């Protein structure tokens, strides 16, 4: 879908690589291998991305390395777009009808930025009536692909609304963390409901 919004498929693939690996820098030839494109096309797109400040470059010996600029004003927005096109976010969006009736599906931006999960972190939060075995299978498959643990939490709408009304600390933490909405409306997700 992003390649229909953005003109260059090479640029989209470079953005996916760099956005989903924000702590890594890549030499041009490594990017060529990852995105499967001609070296001149990759160089041209990297130059375009560097020109707008979305990608930074640094020289080490005779090599130039490129990395996403996490301080760029569009970084979080582009990361949210890519999250729906790749990884666990894409899997949730594409397989939503098999998972069940999802009111909200939220993915932590900190997780997307490469944070290692702890027991207190919620990387994926889903509200709805879902088939937990299907979700577990999707999460396990993504964990195997990436080698990263994905902490997730699921609850139905009644429990979510009740816990929101009572200012539950867990729900407060989920509502206040930086996130991308995979499914549902962010404003309704955060709205305070009076009892």
Which helices and strands, and how do they pair?
Blueprint: H1 2-5, H2 9-19, E1 26-27, H3 28-35, H4 39-51, E2 55-60, E3 63-68, H5 75-83, H6 87-94, H7 96-99, E4 100-108, H8 109-112, E5 124-130, H9 132-146, E6 152-155, H10 157-165, H11 169-176, E7 179-183, H12 186-190
Parallel strand pairs: 5-6
Antiparallel strand pairs: 1-3, 2-3, 4-5, 4-7
Helix pairs in contact: 6-9
Domain HTH arsR-type: 4-87
GO molecular function: DNA-binding transcription factor activity
InterPro entries: HTH_ArsR_DNA-bd_dom, WH-like_DNA-bd_sf, WH_DNA-bd_sf
Fold and architecture overview:
The protein is an alpha+beta fold and 195 residues long. It folds into two domains: 2-68, Winged helix-like DNA-binding domain superfamily/Winged helix DNA-binding domain (Arc Repressor Mutant, subunit A, Orthogonal Bundle); 86-190. Helix content is 50%, strand content 20%. It is built from twelve helices and seven strands. The chain has helices spanning 2-5, 9-19, 28-35, 39-51, 75-83, 87-94, 96-99, 109-112, 132-146, 157-165, 169-176, 186-190, and strands at residues 26-27, 55-60, 63-68, 100-108, 124-130, 152-155, 179-183. The strands form two sheets. The chain has a four-stranded mixed beta sheet with strand order 6-5-4-7. The radius of gyration is 19 Å and the shape is elongated. The N and C termini lie far apart (41 Å). The mean pLDDT is 90.
